[in-house]
Design a protein that fits this description.
Blueprint lengths: L1 H13 L11 H4 L5 H13 L5 H11 L11 H13 L5 H11 L12
Length: 115
């Protein structure tokens, strides 16, 4: 019995902290980089909560607005990713991953500096 008590004690102590890891709420969206997208994401999650698997993924993809690349750290890379997502729309799994790799612009190799 004492073994069980010692095993359960850390779990019970951690319960109040679990709220910190929950989904963001409306007031958290005010602090987000893109508050409108945060609120749209929460609405999409609520609307698609009953669905599972591929059906849920399709619902979330349809409900979410595109990312505002002007708020990104690297707008060029963000726009390239959005373009690739649009080109690969409807694909899933390995086909999606391969399509995203193919659609992303190729990185230029770094020049070799003489030693």
């Amino acid at each position: 019995m004492t073994c069980v008590k010692y095993l359960l004690m850390p779990a019970v102590a951690a319960l109040p902290w679990l709220a910190a890891f929950a989904q963001p709420t409306a007031d958290d969206c005010a602090r987000a980089r893109d508050p409108a997208r945060c609120e749209a994401r929460q609405a999409a999650l609520k609307a698609c909560s009953e669905k599972r698997g591929k059906e849920k993924s399709a619902c979330l993809e349809a409900a979410m607005p595109p990312v505002d690349c002007s708020l990104s750290e690297s707008p060029g890379k963000c726009e390239a990713t959005q373009k690739a997502r649009k080109a690969c729309q409807g694909k899933t799994g390995k086909a999606l991953k391969q399509c995203m790799r193919d659609e992303q612009p190729k990185k230029k190799p770094r020049p070799i500096r003489p030693a």
